[in-house]
Amino acid sequence: MSKVYIETTIPSYLTAWPARDIVIAGKQEVTREWWKKRSGIFYLYISPYVLDEAARGDAEAAKKRLEALHDIPVLSVDEEVVRLAEAIIAANIIPGKAATDASHIAIATRHGMDYLLTWNCAHIANAEIMRQVQKIMEESDYEIPVICTPDELMGGNNDD
Questions:
Q1: Domain-located, residue 159
Q2: Which residue range forms the structural domain that includes residue 137?
Q3: What is the mean pLDDT of residues 98-127?
Q4: In this structure, are residues 110 and 80 in contact, taking their beta carbons and an 8 Å threshold?
Q5: Interatomic CA distance for residues 153 and 53, integer angstroms
Q6: Which segments of 34-105 are extended strands (E)?
Q7: How many angstroms separate the CA atoms of 160 and 158, rounded?
Q8: Which phi and psi (to 5°) does residue 118 adopt?
Q9: Is the pTM of this model over 0.70?
Q10: Got the DSSP string for 129-144?
């Protein structure tokens, strides 16, 4: 089975109240469908970064996010994760104010994840950024995971 790093936007969309905005509502539905139909065929992992972000905000919403994550193994943050994240920031690929986004990429890469699942298309699931990040990771002898959204990891047959 492949290994999937679950970034914070996934439990956020999974557990949120239905949105009125049609685009957000669509992402929520796709996330719920992926979780129901596909999450069980992968080894799922999170990080302390995900737990920290999921615990923020409205207490009731945070509780739902953390409950969705409670059985998922937590990857360790070591000096190499910190170094990789700092390299991404130092190269001005991701702004310092979004350092946690660089940390998500770094920890998923460091721990050899096959996929990084996210709805963060500003700094993570962004083709231009990932091309630059890939170069930095290759220089450190790492291969970045496939970074994708739940609809991209739905499998070959979405009709079931």
A1: no
A2: 3-153
A3: 97
A4: yes
A5: 23
A6: 43-45
A7: 6
A8: -155, 160
A9: yes
A10: HHHHHHHHHHHTT--P
